[in-house]
Design a protein that fits this description.
Structural class of chain A: mainly alpha
Order of helices and strands of chain B: EEEHEEHEHHHHEHEHEEH
Largest sheet of chain A: none
Shape of chain B: globular
Largest sheet of chain B: 6 strands, mixed
Strand content of chain B: 15-25%
Helix content of chain B: 25-40%
Number of domains of chain A: 2
Helix content of chain A: over 70%
CATH topology of one domain in chain B: Rossmann fold
Order of helices and strands of chain A: HHHHHHHHH
Strand order of the largest sheet of chain B: 6-7-8-3-9-10
Oligomer: heterodimer
Number of strands of chain B: 10
Number of strands of chain A: 0
Radius of gyration of chain B: 18 Å
Chain lengths: 262, 259
């Protein structure tokens, strides 16, 4: 009878301890990765390779996401605002939603799916095929060689992607507003510029930097700690995407509170 | 196994457990300088963990690891790194870096330590590739474009390119046909002799052990149970070693399905 009560409690306790342990492990991993950003030797070529992979090759998917999001946002907000004759607010809603929230969050989720998974799969495969051990035997710190450049590249690349997403998203909204909803082009753009504040863009870019760090960190951590062959690498890849996505959404709320709470 | 001269590597009471499973249970071993030593043992007997402990890839729970009379486990991190710089390793599956061409794999350590320019590294890679029987043009290929035997040769080239004092070989002939295995063994013996290095190999291939080693040690259940000349394998008089060398089902070694 006692076990009926104690077993679930014990399971809960084990889960809580496991969560604390994982959080601590990720925290230490992050600290070590960041510490290598300022300690030589630096692997500039590896950083640049990762940066190009993230910033340049993610551009199509992020651009498409931004354009369609801006289009849908204009359409939906127009439909909603028409109910109380506030269609003129469409431009402001589109630009503020995109720069503060949708640009950083959707770009980060896209990059998490693309880059987080790639990092986890590549480093995970290196782990299970002894390549990470080989690095150590070849006088190279795997944290410095594999992890630090990727995390730094993701942290710096995502704000650039979000800047592009902001512009393209507003352009998507403008396309729908002018060619479908009958807005005057110049008036729509003036309204967009009038409502946009520096803080809207800066907060979005700051969020993007944090999200980029999270994507790089979770991708590399999941790969680095993967075990058990192909199945382990598959699990690490899934975990990297899921954990990054959840953290992005949770951190988005926390950062919005920090930037805009009254 | 005791020798008058200071052994290159000296293990005493090395212990390691993963959870409840004891993998090393007090390994004592001397590896003489400038010779080839092989550790024999079945799967799961602790061969790989022994090497990983010496390399610093696995931290032992207890015991001593001395290289040139110096306790590696109690060295400051920097000195331990310097010690590791003097060691080369051939991994069982090669562990070549897929993202780099062969020549960069071969000279990875030299480039990582800034001991050589990239142009000089290409020349050095061609030189070492030739020593293991590969053409210089192989240097421009990706590891994925190579056969298993060629990958093993490249991995051997990478292990010795920085002219290490000590080289470890983890199952060097696993996955190769007997002829290619014999070729790799011959290359290992040649390269180690040319370097004047100390070689420590682990294998369960008796023919390979005879070809690449002067001294053999048998590990069973995490302990060294026999050491002697590699040439005597199969006729050692030790029931455990002879059973292993002949691959007999009956004998003191019982196959455990799960431990």
């Amino acid at each position: 009878m006692a076990s009926l009560v104690l077993d679930p409690l014990a399971a809960l306790g084990r889960a809580a301890i496991g969560a604390c342990r994982a959080t601590g492990a990720v925290g230490l991993f992050a600290l070590e990765a960041v510490s290598h950003w300022v300690r030589p030797p630096f692997y500039g070529r590896l950083f640049w390779g990762a940066f190009v992979e993230i910033a340049w090759f993610s551009l199509p998917v992020v651009a498409l996401t931004a354009v369609f999001t801006g289009m849908v946002l204009a359409l939906q907000s127009y439909t909603g605002f028409a109910r109380f004759n506030a269609q003129s607010a469409v431009a402001s809603v589109v630009v503020i939603s995109l720069t503060r929230e949708l640009g950083p969050v959707l770009a980060a989720l896209m990059v998490a799916g693309r880059i987080g998974a790639a990092f986890a799969a590549e480093i995970g495969t290196m782990r299970v095929t002894d390549q990470i051990d080989a690095l150590t035997t070849l006088s190279t710190d795997p944290m410095k060689y594999l992890v630090a450049p990727r995390v730094l590249a993701a942290t710096l690349a995502l704000p650039l992607l979000v800047l592009v997403a902001d512009v393209l998203g507003v352009m998507g909204g403008w396309l729908i507003a002018t060619f479908k909803l009958g807005f005057v082009s110049a008036a729509y753009l003036k309204s967009t510029a009038d409502f946009l504040q520096t803080m809207d863009v800066v907060s979005g870019l700051a969020k993007a930097g944090v999200f980029g760090f999270v994507i790089g960190l979770m991708g590399t951590w999941c790969g680095y700690t993967s075990r058990g062959g192909a199945r382990g690498v598959g699990g690490a890849t899934t975990l990297a995407v899921v954990a990054s996505s959840i953290l992005i959404l949770a951190l988005d709320y926390a950062l919005t509170e920090a930037f805009f709470a009254q | 196994m005791m020798h008058g001269a200071l052994p290159k590597i000296r293990l005493r009471g090395l212990r390691k457990a993963f959870g409840a499973k004891k993998v090393l249970d007090g390994v004592d071993l001397d590896v003489p300088a400038g010779q080839g030593t092989v550790i024999l043992g079945g799967s799961g007997s602790g061969k790989s963990v022994t090497i990983k402990c010496i390399l610093g890839l696995v931290e032992p729970d207890a015991g001593e690891i001395e290289i040139d009379g110096r306790d590696v486990l109690r060295m400051p991190r920097r000195e331990r790194q310097e010690m590791a710089d003097r060691i080369g390793m051939l991994f069982q599956n090669g562990a070549l870096f897929d993202s780099l061409p062969v020549w960069e794999n071969v000279c990875f350590k030299l480039l990582a330590q800034n001991r050589i320019t990239r142009a000089a590294a290409r020349d050095r890679a061609a030189e070492v590739l030739e020593q293991v029987g590969l053409a210089a043009s192989v240097g421009d290929l990706s590891p994925a474009e190579l056969s298993g035997g060629m990958q093993k040769r490249v991995a051997l080239a990478r292990a010795v390119a920085a002219r290490p004092e000590i080289v470890f070989f983890d199952e060097p002939t696993t996955g190769l046909d007997p002829i290619m295995g014999s070729v790799i063994d011959g290359l290992i013996a040649d390269v180690v002799k040319r370097l004047g290095a100390t070689a420590l190999s682990i294998t369960h291939d008796i023919a390979s052990a005879r070809r690449i080693a002067d001294t053999a040690a048998m590990i069973h259940r995490g302990r060294i149970v026999w050491t002697g000349p590699a040439a005597s394998l199969g006729q050692t008089g030790n029931a455990m070693v002879d059973q292993f060398a002949r691959g007999e089902r009956e004998g003191p070694i019982q196959m455990e399905l799960r431990r």
